[in-house]
Amino acid sequence: MTCHLHGLSVLVTRPREQSDALCELIEQAHGRPVRFPVMEIVPPGDPDAAAKVLARAASADLLLFVSANAVKHAFPRLPEILPAETAVAAVGRATARALEEAGLEPDLVPEGRFDSEGLLALPQLQEMAGKRVIIVRGEGGRETLRETLQARGAEVAYAEVYRRRCAERSAANLVAHWEALVEVATATSVAILDCLWRLLGEAGQAKLKETPLVVLSGRIADRARELGCRRVVVTRQAGDRAILESLCELAEGA
User: Fold this and answer.
1) Quick one: DSSP state of residue 108?
2) How far from 182 is each of 33, 123, 134, 235, CA to CA, in Å?
3) How many CA atoms are closer than 13 Å to the CA of 27, on its beta-carbon side?
4) Which of 21, 49, 52, 48 is nearest to 35 (CA)?
5) CB 139 within 8 A of CB 44
6) How do 87-90 and 32-35 pair as beta strands?
């Protein structure tokens, strides 16, 4: 998509390691990304547990990666060679790109909806009786993938290779200069939104409530409205380009 953001200032709240691609898209569209990572990616609480699960990857029927971070943190622990019979799934395009960059071509990637539901809708994942599945992810998060695959007959194990935590930082400068720095905010997960809310404090929360907030799903939008945000925009699908599309529509007054 080609658009002009006309200098729109966009608060990017993703973890530092995940924000570059979105910030580059905003800059290319003549916007101004304001980086304020509210969450950190750190090693899991029990690295040995994840390593033991990944050591069995060669005997799995399906390796399912839920994020680019899952790819990054899993690869040092994966067997060097996986059998051709082991299918590899990515929940979305960013995860698929991370797999390709690591030298592992994904077999299954959703076409339209880049989330758990989009992946579960693939015809290859409907009949799962007796299949051994390893879901590679961070600690915590939604149980939709495991519960649905188990209901379809699969044996499912988690390899939790990282964890997320709210950043410990001050938002005082951001809040003090909010009107100059933030015309639109973004939140790409419920956890990120909750971390942002906590960091902003009462004064910043009041400002966020009146600021257009671009989110990736109805779940995040519901949480934003619970918090009192009045101007919530849900992207048409997940991904950085979908965020840019929504930003462009806001910039053009659509």
Assistant:
1) B
2) 9, 43, 40, 19
3) 10
4) 21
5) yes
6) unpaired
Domains and CATH numbers, the chain: 9-38+167-251 (3.40.50.10090), 42-165 (3.40.50.10090)
Provide mean pLDDT across the span 125-153. Answer: 94
Residue 112 has pLDDT above 80, yes or no: no
DSSP E strand stretches across the chain: 9-12, 32-35, 39-42, 62-65, 87-90, 132-138, 155-166, 184-187, 213-215, 232-234
Report CA dihedral (75, 79, 82, 88) to the nearest 10 degrees. -30
Tokens found for residue 200: 């902003």
- Structure confidence by residue, pLDDT tens digits, 34-51: 999 999 999 998 999 999
Q: Is 26 within 8 Å of 51 (Cβ atoms)?
A: no
Give CA–CA dist 41/131, Å, rounded: 31
Q: Which residues of 67-77 are buried (b: 16+ CB within 10 A; e: fewer)?
A: bbbbbbbbbeb
Distance between CA atoms of residues 94 and 183, nearest Å: 26
Long-range CB contact pairs, 123-130, < 8 A, 24+: 124/87, 125/89, 125/149, 125/152, 126/152, 127/152, 127/153, 128/152, 128/153, 128/154, 129/153, 129/154, 130/154, 130/155
Using CA atoms, how far residue 3 sits from 33, 70, 93, 181, in Å, is 15, 32, 22, 21
Rounded Cα gap, residues 180 and 172, in angstroms: 14
Reference 17, options 64, 63, 70; nearest CA is: 70
